[in-house]
């Protein structure tokens, strides 16, 4: 008799469950730690510094904690489906801008409050979905990817003087050879292998680039030697600093993130059990998302969200067991409690990270385009896309254009994601639909 794993409460044999848990970790590991590195760098943290290592540790630790909120659950919190949580790219644009101008204390405070709002959304998320059709959600995700791509190119070319890279070596062949190695190896593994190997393509590409960077003398292991063996967890490590503009910006992205989690919960139920997600599962997934974000923010972690690439693993393996993803969450918690793991990641030269994020951020933009492909490209929809992107990305590229606005509104206006989302929602509500001809 063949055992079926389409029931989330059924656990495969331990010899199968543990490797599957590691597979979920490998698929999301690089994407999980990258946002913390980018936001930390924007805040002025030196590469390999204890503060940056700390942010990386918190990203791993609270990705694991948030995953347990989803898979194990607490009362109505958690979908109790195999949904892997991780640090969200959606917030990077907003948080990097806030951290650069107002500091990490303001950014993390906004994360805490945004997480609480996100949690509250769980009670009525199903009633808000109409505000975020594929036109709006796709536009926001596309804006996130387009905003981040220049960051990826900057990293691949060697960072910049402020990131402790010599200005005259920016764009050197040495830097680009490392970044291109990451890209080429990632693509080869992704498209010419299968299973766990294919799902770990980005991580293995980063390892290949890391190896080349080591050979070229670009790796400094001093922070690894100096790192401890156990993470000290401190509430509000950067204080509690309220800024209305930062809170509004993070909250707007939280709403989009909540809608994305609804999609992931629905996709997981379809992929693993060929059924629709229940209202309780969707609400529980949203509650867990918000709670994970708020708790992470209290201890220095960035917002969490469901990871879509792990939905693909459920569909590929056909194993719906939430307990497999619980194992993955426990692995992330263990990694987060060992600072030497974070120090190894923080010792990664910027061109190595740049090669990885060129692929990752490009995929974010491509995911947005994929969602937009579901809509009809009428004149109305094209105008919404054009105006929303023009305002969102344009004001971010030329922040002095709104330099005389009050601080709160200026933070919102130049965050790229928030103005794109706000403009897209408003235009989608007020512009009349064209009559079919």
From TrEMBL:
Swiss-Prot/TrEMBL keywords: Cell membrane, Membrane, Transmembrane, Transmembrane helix, Transport
Species in which this protein is naturally found: Pseudooctadecabacter jejudonensis
Residue stretches in coiled coil: none
MF (Gene Ontology): xanthine transmembrane transporter activity
Transmembrane segments: 20-40, 52-77, 89-121, 130-153, 173-189, 201-222, 242-262, 324-346, 352-372, 384-405, 411-431
Name under which the protein is recorded: Uric acid transporter UacT
Record family assignment: Belongs to the nucleobase:cation symporter-2 (NCS2) (TC 2.A.40) family.
UniProt membrane topology term: Multi-pass membrane protein
Compartments, record wording: Cell membrane
GN (gene name): uacT
GO CC term, one of those recorded: plasma membrane
Top-level taxon of origin: Bacteria
């Amino acid at each position: 008799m063949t055992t079926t794993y389409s029931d989330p409460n059924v656990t495969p044999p331990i010899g199968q469950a543990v490797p599957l848990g590691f597979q979920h970790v490998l698929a999301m590991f690089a994407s999980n730690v990258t946002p913390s590195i980018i936001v930390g760098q924007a805040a002025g943290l030196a590469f390999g510094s204890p503060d940056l290592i700390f942010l990386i540790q918190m990203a791993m630790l609270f990705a694991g904690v948030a995953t347990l909120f989803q898979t194990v659950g607490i009362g109505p919190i958690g979908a109790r489906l195999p949904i892997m949580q991780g640090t969200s790219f959606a917030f990077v644009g907003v948080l990097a801008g806030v951290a650069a101008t107002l500091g990490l204390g303001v950014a993390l405070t906004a994360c805490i409050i945004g997480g609480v709002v996100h949690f509250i959304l769980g009670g009525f998320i199903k009633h808000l979905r109409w505000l975020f059709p594929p036109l709006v959600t796709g536009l926001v995700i596309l804006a996130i990817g387009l905003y981040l791509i220049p960051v990826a190119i900057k990293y691949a070319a060697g960072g910049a003087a402020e990131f402790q890279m010599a200005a005259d070596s920016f764009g050197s062949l040495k830097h680009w050879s490392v970044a291109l190695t990451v890209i080429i190896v990632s693509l080869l593994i992704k498209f010419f292998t299968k299973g766990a190997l294919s799902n770990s393509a980005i991580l293995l590409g980063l390892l290949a680039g890391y190896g080349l960077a080591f050979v070229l003398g670009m790796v400094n292991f001093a922070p690894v030697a100096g790192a401890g063996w156990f993470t000290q967890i401190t509430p509000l490590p950067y204080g509690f600093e309220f800024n209305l503009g930062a809170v509004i910006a993070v909250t707007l992205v939280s709403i989009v993130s909540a809608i994305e989690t609804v999609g992931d919960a629905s996709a997981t139920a379809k992929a693993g059990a060929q059924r629709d997600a229940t209202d309780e599962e969707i609400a529980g997934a949203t509650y867990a998302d918000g709670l994970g974000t708020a708790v992470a923010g209290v201890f220095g972690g960035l917002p969490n969200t469901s990871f879509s690439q792990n939905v693909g693993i459920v569909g590929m393996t056909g194993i719906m067991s939430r307990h497999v993803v619980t194992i993955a969450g426990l692995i992330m918690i263990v990694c987060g409690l060992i600072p030497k793991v974070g120090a190894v990641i923080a010792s990664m030269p910027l061109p190595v990270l740049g090669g990885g994020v060129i692929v990752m951020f490009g995929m974010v933009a491509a995911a947005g385009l994929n969602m937009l492909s579901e809509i009809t490209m009428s004149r109305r929809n094209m105008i919404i896309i054009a105006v929303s992107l023009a305002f969102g990305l344009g004001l971010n590229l030329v922040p002095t254009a709104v330099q005389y606005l009050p601080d709160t509104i200026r933070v919102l206006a130049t965050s790229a994601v928030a103005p794109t989302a706000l403009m897209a929602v408003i235009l989608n509500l007020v512009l009349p639909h064209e009559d079919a001809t």
